[in-house]
Amino acid sequence: MHIQKAAWADLDDLTELLGAYLQFYEVPKPLAQVQAFLCARLHAADSTILLARDEGGGALGFVQLYAIFSSLALRPAWLLSDLYVNEQARRQGVGEALMNAARAHAEATGACGLQLETAKSNLPGQALYERLGYVRDEVFFTYWLGVN
Questions:
Q1: Phi/psi zone of residue 41: left (φ > 0), alpha (ψ -120 to 50 degrees), beta?
Q2: Is residue 53 part of a domain?
Q3: Which of 10, 42, 77, 84 would give a disulfide with 21, using CB separation of 3.0 to 4.6 Å?
């Protein structure tokens, strides 16, 4: 397996993976809409997408990061927005490898840390994050305001 920063040539594979990710979280979207979203991210270069591929070049999974800033640390940080591994590739270390690649990217860019959120029901993900040293926040609540 190898992990690399996604590029335009990866768009079709990324579209399939992000589409499956949205299905997993029960918010399916048409693939054309998924692809348009990814095109916008790649064009604006406002996210970093790391893509895992097997030795044959098949797409296994991805992680998407957005740059944020920590006012408390006065340093940049990264929001680990999305992590997805193909069902067929799960329990083979792909998720852990993507998480480690995200950490290496954060370290290489001088970030003070990585932040992520996950569904309360995503117990396998929580176990992975905690095994990798992520600490569940017990101090702050997360709030969301939907706007159109």
A1: alpha
A2: yes
A3: 84
On whether residue 137 sits in a domain, the answer given is no
Question: Number of H helices and number of E strands within the chain?
Answer: 4, 5
Counting the structural domains of the chain, the total is: 1
Report whether pLDDT(140) > 90: no
Cα 69 to Cα 130: distance, rounded to the nearest angstrom: 23
Secondary structure class of 66 (helix, strand, coil) = strand
Q: Which residues contact 27 (CB under 8 A, 6 or more apart)?
A: none
Whether 148 is in a domain gets the answer no
Main-chain dihedrals φ then ψ at residue 59, nearest 5 degrees: -75, 130
Q: Quick: pLDDT tens for 10-54.
A: 999 999 999 999 999 999 999 999 999 999 999 999 999 999 999
pTM: 0.93
| Of 104, 132, 133, residue with least CA distance to 4 | 104
Partners of residue 84 on adjacent β-strands: 62
Q: How far apart are CA 101 and CA 109, in angstroms?
A: 12
Quote the pLDDT of residue 74.
95
- The verdict on residue 127 lying in a domain is yes
* pLDDT confidence band for 143 (50 / 70 / 90): confident
